[in-house]
Amino acid sequence: MLTTKYFFLLILIAASLIFVVLFHWFSSNDPEDRILVRYDTVNNDRFQQVRHWQTMTNSEALQADFDERLVVIYNRVPKTGSTSFVNLTYDLCRKNAFHVLHINITANMHVFSLPNQIRFVRNVTAWEAMKPAFYHGHLAYLDFSKMGVPAAKPLYINLVRKPLDRLVSYYYFLRYGDDYRPHLVRHRAGDTMTFDECVAKQKQDCDPNNMWLQIPFFCGHAAECWKPGSAWALQEAKRNLVNEYFLVGVTEEMTEFVELLEMALPRLFRGASDHFAKSNKSHLRKTKSKVEPLPETVAKIQQSLVWQMENELYQYALEQFHFAQMKLHAPGKNALPQDFFYEKIKPNQNVPVRN
Ligand SMILES: *[C@@H]1O[C@H](CO)[C@@H](O)[C@H](O)[C@H]1NC(C)=O
Ligand SMILES: *[C@@H]1O[C@H](CO)[C@@H](O)[C@H](O)[C@H]1NC(C)=O
Ligand SMILES: *[C@@H]1O[C@H](CO)[C@@H](O)[C@H](O)[C@H]1NC(C)=O
Ligand SMILES: *[C@@H]1O[C@H](CO)[C@@H](O)[C@H](O)[C@H]1NC(C)=O
Fold first, then answer.
1. Is the CB of 127 under 6 A from ligand 3?
2. Which of 28, 101, 220, 350 has the fewest C-beta atoms lying within 10 Å of its C-beta?
3. Residues 256 and 325: beta-carbon distance below 8 Å
4. Which family does it belong to (predicted)?
5. Nearest CA to 136 among 186, 90, 184?
6. Which atom of ligand 3 sits closest to the CA of residue 126?
7. Which atom of ligand 3 is nearest to the CA of 128?
8. What's the whole-model pTM score?
9. DSSP of 273-316, one letter per residue?
10. How much of the chain, in percent, has pLDDT values that exceed 90?
11. Which residues face 155 on adjacent strands?
């Protein structure tokens, strides 16, 4: 008699124990809880935001999570007007609460060694405390999906510039510097030879092969990318431009580039257009003492295969960018808020499923 009583009591205690354990297990599997834990440990000043999230539904929290974990990589090509755009992101990062990081690459290399490729990819992906983040640096396109990192890939953006303009700008920049860091003595300071004279004398500094830079930056880390005149590299650059880049603008239309970014990624770029228009950043970092090349110099450069291929990539990027711009507007209308909606959703959400 007494033993049966104890037996039932034991069963009761065991059952309640199981119930408590199960309850904890299920509640800690709630996605909102997981988010709360992550942000608590990672960043205390996100606490306010997290409190707000608790009132959201799971799918709303997931949407917000996309923004909070956003990583944008701007693998800028030297002398494409990138400084003014990067300056803009530094101005915005405090107000919009994201991090900007410069990738300083040893010895100005554009290609990482294999151990560094995987180290970089893992570091960027795992570094939660920096997210949302904007990374910028003179790095050739690097494919994250090759590195076995299952997490979301970053969004690549870039700007391209007319190849001859870029070369001429770089040529004078090496000799006279710019108004951004006016006192820095550049490699070729003191050399007063003009670009025209250089081309006429067929010197190294104005060799059209020096224009082979935008193609390899878009092409990436393959050996073939860095062979001036490679048709494969041009094709690969084009493929990456449309398949792997979120947005590629042109230096000549930077205002439109900033506007489109603000519309597409407001989490980072909210207020960017206004700020860009107000500040005189678009005129920032003008190369000093730049002389426009003579028509015969231009004609000579345009005969080179490298110019023709670089120009093809530029025109390709321009067409793509204009297409993206055009799609912002419905025919005869102003900007569209959202140009899709869902309909014919079956089975009906409000009718409970009957067995
Ligand atoms: C942006 O450019 C302005 C000069 O126009 C400079 O005063 C400011 O320090 C720059 N900001 C950063 C973060 O480099
Ligand atoms: C990168 O780091 C080196 C070494 O600290 C420094 O000398 C160089 O100025 C940095 N590069 C840039 C672009 O800031
Ligand atoms: C990423 O690299 C930086 C600098 O080397 C380091 O401080 C940081 O802890 C790394 N982040 C992760 C998540 O490994
Ligand atoms: C911007 O440029 C205009 C002329 O181009 C000048 O009048 C104005 O003072 C500049 N503003 C700032 C904030 O530098």
1. yes
2. 350
3. yes
4. Belongs to the sulfotransferase 3 family.
5. 90
6. 13
7. 13
8. 0.78
9. HHHHHHSSGGG-SPBTT--PPPHHHHHHHHTSHHHHHHHHHHHH
10. 51
11. 72
Cα–Cα distance, 158 to 54 (Å, whole number): 36
Let me know the angle formed at the C-alpha of 89 by 170 and 70, rounded to the nearest 5 degrees.
Answer: 115
CATH architecture of 66-327: 3-Layer(aba) Sandwich (3.40)
Q: List pLDDT tens digits, range 35-82.
A: 333 333 334 455 445 555 556 677 788 778 889 999 999 999 988 877
- What local confidence, expressed as pLDDT, does residue 110 receive? 94
**Which H helix or E strand runs over 100?**
strand 99-102
Domain range annotation of the chain: 66-327
Q: What phi and psi values does residue 39 have, to the nearest 5 degrees?
A: -75, -30
Under DSSP, the state recorded for 253 is G
Quote the CA–CA distance of 26 and 24 in Å, as a whole number: 5
Query: Helix, strand, or coil here: 182?
Result: coil
Separation CA 163–CA 192 (nearest Å): 22
Q: Are 104 and 137 in contact (CB under 8 A)?
A: yes
Answer for the pair 307, 199: CB distance below 8 angstroms, yes or no.
Answer: no
Compute the distance between CA of residue 104 and CA of residue 200 in angstroms, rounded to an integer.
Answer: 36
List pLDDT tens digits, range 125-143.
999 999 999 999 999 999 9
Residue 291, both tokens: 């002389």
